[in-house]
Design a protein that fits this description.
With 200 residues, the protein is α+β, with helices and mostly antiparallel strands. The chain is built from 2 helices and 11 strands; from the N terminus they run αβββββββββββα. The strands form 3 sheets. Strands 2-11-10-5-6-7 form a 6-stranded mixed sheet, with no helix packed on it. It has a 3-stranded antiparallel sheet with strand order 3-9-8, with no helix packed on it. Pfam families: V-set.
Length: 200
């Protein structure tokens, strides 16, 4: 009697997984591989601030780097350049973007429309690509808070002025009271001297 071989499906899965891992490792070791790291994937900024969209990549060949911005207003190409050759900055970002050799870009004077997702693609000449994403949140300066601080400062200044005036009045009243008391004491002392003179 022949019994069916048990466990063969699980063995084939293990063999397939090992083969896949070896193939992936071989692909990573072949020339032309690209690796990309995004050190700060989430950036918070306020309006009119400058931000740095930083990446780090390694590549055996000459890479082409491309940045795109995706938001609720649509997708916009920011810049594309090939290392050492050319830089093609979109007209929308012409005066606001600085590119760096390591693939990073600086975006100057951000506004609310600059919030969203920034996608970077590093394309190696042999056809290998690497992708990265940075989320940018842009916040407005809340003038209501500044207004509250200004009102509070004015209130404290008014209270301080009132307290200073009150202290000045108290000091003046105390001075007048001391003057009257001194005058009375002088008058009573004079009367005593006169009485002593009369008795004598």
């Amino acid at each position: 009697l022949m019994r069916p071989l048990q466990g063969s499906p699980s063995r084939s899965v293990v063999v397939g997984t090992v083969t896949l891992c070896l193939a992936a490792g071989w692909a990573l070791q072949t020339p032309g591989g690209v690796s990309l790291v995004v050190p700060q994937p989430n950036i918070n900024a306020t309006v009119a601030q400058n931000i740095l969209l930083s990446i780090e990549y390694s590549c055996r060949g000459v890479p082409t780097i491309e940045w795109k911005h995706v938001s609720s207003w649509g997708t916009t190409s920011i810049v594309e350049w090939r290392s050492g050759n050319y830089v093609n900055i979109s007209t929308v970002y012409k005066d606001r973007v600085t590119t760096f050799e390591n693939g990073s870009i600086q975006l100057r004077n951000v506004g609310m429309r600059d919030a969203g997702y920034y996608f970077v693609t590093v394309m190696e000449e042999h056809g290998t690509n690497a992708y990265g994403t940075i989320i940018v949140n842009v916040y407005e300066i809340i003038y209501e808070d500044l207004h509250f601080v200004a009102v509070l400062f004015a209130f404290l200044a008014a209270v301080s002025a009132i307290l200073i005036c009150f202290m000045w009045l108290c000091n003046k009243s105390l001075h007048l009271f001391q003057k009257k008391t001194t005058h009375k004491l002088t008058a009573s002392t004079t009367e005593e001297i006169e009485l002593e003179t009369i008795e004598c």
